[in-house]
Amino acid sequence: MIAILPRRMGRTGLGVVSIGLPILLFVGLSLQADNFLQAQNIANINSQITTLLIVALGQLFVALIGGIDISVGSVVSLSSTLLVMVDPALAVPAALLAGAVIGLANGVGVAIFGVHPLIMTLAMATFVQGLALLMMSGSGGTVPEALIWMAKTSFGGVPVSFLWCLAAVAVTAVLLNRTRFGLHVYAIGAGEQSAAFSGVRIASTRIACYVICSLAGSMAAIYLTGRIASGDPTMGRPFSLDSVTAIALGGVLLSGGIGGVWAALLGTLTLGLITNGMNLTGVSPFFREAITGVLLLVAVSLHRRKVIGI
Amino acid sequence: MNWKAWLYASAIVGASSFGPAVAVAQDKVELLPPELMAPSSAETIPAGQYKKDAPWVIGFSWPGTGNTWIVQTIQEINYAAANNKDIKDFRFVDANWQPAKQVADIEDLLAQKVDVLVVLPIAVDLVKAQVDAAAKAGIPVVVFSPGGTFTSAAVSVYGGGEAFGKAGGTFLKERLGGKGTIWAFRGVAGVGEETARYNGFVESLKGSDIKIGAEVFGDWNYPKAKQLCENLVASGQPVDGIWFSGADMTRACFDVFKELGKPLVPMTGEANNGFLRAWKDAGADSVGPIFTPGLGTALLRAAVALLEGKEINRAYYSDPAPITAANFDSYYRPDLNDAFWFPSTMPEEEIQKTFKR
Question: CA B23 → CA A195, A292, B9, B163, B175, distances in Å?
Fold first, then answer.
């Protein structure tokens, strides 16, 4: 299979590893875990990966321009606290506004003031996490019923989480593949100077990518807060690094220019299958992080690139 | 009403459907020795309600790892599960302190059609919906709560959290004669157990003239707490006593006071052998609130009792008397290492094997 398939399919980032890994996991778990193929379990996997998928799709925009957003997890946390603390009618707009403002600040810091993305978003992550904890010291609050419904209902047996995934993937695909903005994103990732010479507005495009990433964090919080039916000021902590792991597993180049919706989707699915599979097969939970780390290293090492992992 | 009576009343009222003024029923199932845990509701699960023929599949959702108390508690659970021949499959999943993962873990356990689900939540509110879903599906659920209630759980075990915080706060209130300034060293911000401990501590100070002069988050971590303690001492802020959410931070402050030549003030700790050693070495005036690592075993015993069809109370409460200077010698084990926590449910032979110094 390795011999007949190209190791990377153009700018999508997809390759043998990113496609093969989730398939391998799916087949393996189908044979090993009795309950894996049951409809309830498949629905569970769908619900479990939705939050990470939304965040990973946001992270994808930033990665495509060669950046990284470590603050997106804190945006999830802050949005979750806002959703249960403000008037229910204003909850969603407040969460989205917070996401947009944080993304704007990140983007301006990186694109206008030249702060390194890691430093800018790390500082923002700390600030925003602190803000969330100032607002709410622990989990709780009353989640608007509409949000719970939006995260838990189903239509004709299809869980709404599937529709969330579908919408997030569709919006990202359209933005990246059917708009001038998407073209500019890939152009900046491929070479900022060339893109600038071609008339691409570098700063505004980069700022827009950070805003989209933070907005994705807020959207993910809307889903997750409804799903858990509780606000939590630390809810988003794992998502910053998990979203980077997901897109890297899917074949997205963190140096920019290579990657796409399918890469983010397959990387997220791989992580979701690892977690679900370990629970179903009774593998010690303490292996999960270790196995994820090893898989990530193996996956990115098998991708053809100048520097392993980038 | 004294604080202990208030605590019991809270637990009973908290268990909502158990009625406001229940007489504690005769214990049908002893989860831990009575001095560690007692029934706190009169309502029981009738004999046979969840009876199921062995062997069983038991699902256990754990919040996360990261300190020696957790390591020992998991060891005690695994020991108890491994030594019960009726447990065919013990599915233990760890959420790594990630709320979304704990929700996913519980969903996965339910998909595996476990016979009983045991949950020790990161925070009560985060898993209520999943506990409700399990109960609706007819799977009995046993939960632990440091504060907050689960009405749909078959058996709820309350303890730790507020009781722990109150034991330390009450010690300081008594030592300071109800007035003075104390510092509060909290754990990791946002963690349910931490918030419950702090709430219990603040509650215990009500009605006194004690004020909290400084409040810091030491993350239950020796190096961070040491730095914070050095800064506070250097700032010259008055201090008559210090409340700690965890004893690694107490050890750090013992060391800071010693290094700076400042006389020790009363400081709270916890029931850990390493802390008791430091307490003894420092000659400190302290107290060790007990949060028994046998808690996990108690949850497992409740789950087994349900499947055996035994009549069992719907709520239990753990509020053991703390370790004090008076009973110090009956706890401290110089032959064991610092990672050992009191009291254990494992036999002495196993304790020696695992914790021998």
Answer: 77, 52, 11, 21, 33
Instruction: Please name the member of B97, B103, B109 whose beta carbon is closest to the beta carbon of A228.
Output: B103
Nearest-angstrom CA–CA distance, A53 and A162: 11
Q: Is residue A230 part of a domain?
A: yes
Could you tell me which of B198, B205, B124 has the C-alpha nearest to residue B161?
Answer: B198
Which of B78, B90, B102, B126 to probe by mutation at the A interface, max A CB count within 10 Å?
B126
In B, minimum Cα distance to A132 occurs at: B190
Contact A285 B93 (CB under 8 A): yes
How far is B99 from B97, CA to CA, in rounded Å? 6
pLDDT grade for B148, boundaries at 50, 70 and 90? low
User: In sequence order, what DSSP letters do the residues of A71-123 get, joined into one string?
Assistant: THHHHHHHHHHHHHHS-HHHHHHHHHHHHHHHHHHHHHHHHTS---HHHHHHH
- Helix spans in chain B (H): 3-14, 68-82, 99-111, 124-136, 161-175, 192-205, 222-235, 247-259, 273-282, 295-308, 328-331, 348-355
Which amino acid, B164?
Answer: F
**How many Cβ atoms are within 10 Å of A305's Cβ, its own excluded?**
17
Concatenating the DSSP letter of every residue in B58-102 gives EEEEE----SHHHHHHHHHHHHHHHT-TTEEEEEEEE-TT-HHHH
A2 within a domain of the structure (yes/no):
no
- Least confident residue range of A20-24, A180-184, B26-30, B54-58: B26-30
3-state SS, residue A155: strand
A141 CA to chain B: closest CA distance, Å? Answer: 9
Closest CA to A107 of A35, A16, A201: A201
User: The domain spanning residue A196 has which CATH number?
Assistant: 1.10.3470
Domain assignment present for A4: no
pLDDT value for B182: 97
Q: Measuring CA to CA, which residue among A272, A239, A258, A237 is closest to residue A300?
A: A258
Which architecture characterizes domain B3-159+292-320 according to CATH? 3-Layer(aba) Sandwich (3.40)
Over the Cα atoms of chain A, what is R_g?
19
Element (H, E) at A174: helix A160-177
> Hey, which residues does B210 pair with through a beta bridge?
B180
Identify which of B296, B298, B304 has the alpha carbon closest to the alpha carbon of residue B54. B304
- For residue A295, what pLDDT band results from cuts at 50, 70 and 90? confident
**Number of residues that this document lists for chain B:** 357
The CATH code that applies to domain B162-287 is: 3.40.50.2300
Q: Which residue in B92, B110, B189 is closest to A133 by CB distance?
A: B189
Q: Exposed, middle or buried: residue B250 (CB in 10 Å: 0-12, 13-18, 19+)?
A: buried
Q: Looking at the partner chain, which of A44, A233, A286 has a beta carbon nearest the beta carbon of B111?
A: A44
Structure-token pair, residue A305: 């690139």
Going across the sheet that includes B209-217, the strands are: B209-217, B179-186, B241-244, B267-268, B286-287
ipTM of the complex: 0.79
- Paired tokens of A248: 């890297």
Length of chain A: 310
What are the structural domain ranges in chain B? 3-159+292-320, 162-287
Residue B271 has pLDDT above 50, yes or no: yes
